[in-house]
Amino acid sequence: MSEFIMPPGYRFEPTDEELIRFYFSEKALGQPLPRSSIVEKELYGDNANPWDVFSDTDPLKTETIFDKNETKSIKKTIFVLTKLSKISPKRISRKVGCGLWDGQTGAITINDSQGMIIGSKKMLTFKTKGDSNVMKIHGHWIMHEYSLDGVSLINGLKFINDYVICRITRSWKGKDLQVLENRKRSRTISYDHSNREDNKKARMMLVQESISHNGGQDFDLLDQIDDLSPSMIEDCMKWLSDELN
């Protein structure tokens, strides 16, 4: 499948009311969602780490932002229809893979222009169990979860309570963004036999750069040597030992 590309000038940025009225309510009535804007995914379960769920073929909106201190950050946003993982009619399991989606707010009502309640939303963040470095590699994740409510349910649409539309944002900033960029750079280096010395020097330069910045704490060394021959690994580890000593 080829990568999905948004048409020039197209931005899918619905308000809360628009998302409920023109997309979620229409889906509840049997109308299809626009594939170019909202995808259907399973966000919960043992194999549903968010970085495993999404790919470049999905309609992700990417933004590069600089704050007042000129600190760079990257944000990727996507809208998703998903089925909730219910333990009981009133209890929802938000566990996934190596962590869970942790609630940050209670339900906030969404009103239409006439003041009628049409839905609600909650904010959640993804938290991992154990290794904090996972988030440095995979970014910070925030979910806004939208449900139908009030007059949106008057037409016998109770079954839709099992579904929500989520606006999910993945972001990297500062040192975490440096981790991402280092990993991308490392994967652009090709290790063919005819260019062995140049390849080794290029990879070692990345390691050296990370060490000089902050002791290599933002750098996955194993990611740099796992595809080298034993002799090259030995050379690389000797070089690293000399640098640290």
UniProtKB/TrEMBL annotation:
The keyword DNA-binding applies. Keywords: DNA-binding, Nucleus, Transcription, Transcription regulation. One of its GO terms (molecular function) is DNA binding. Pfam families: NAM. Residues 6-171 form the NAC domain. InterPro entries: NAC-dom, NAC_dom_sf. It comes from the Eukaryota. SUPFAM superfamilies: NAC domain (SSF101941). This is NAC domain-containing protein 19. It comes from Forsythia ovata. The lineage of its organism: Eukaryota, Viridiplantae, Streptophyta, Embryophyta, Tracheophyta.
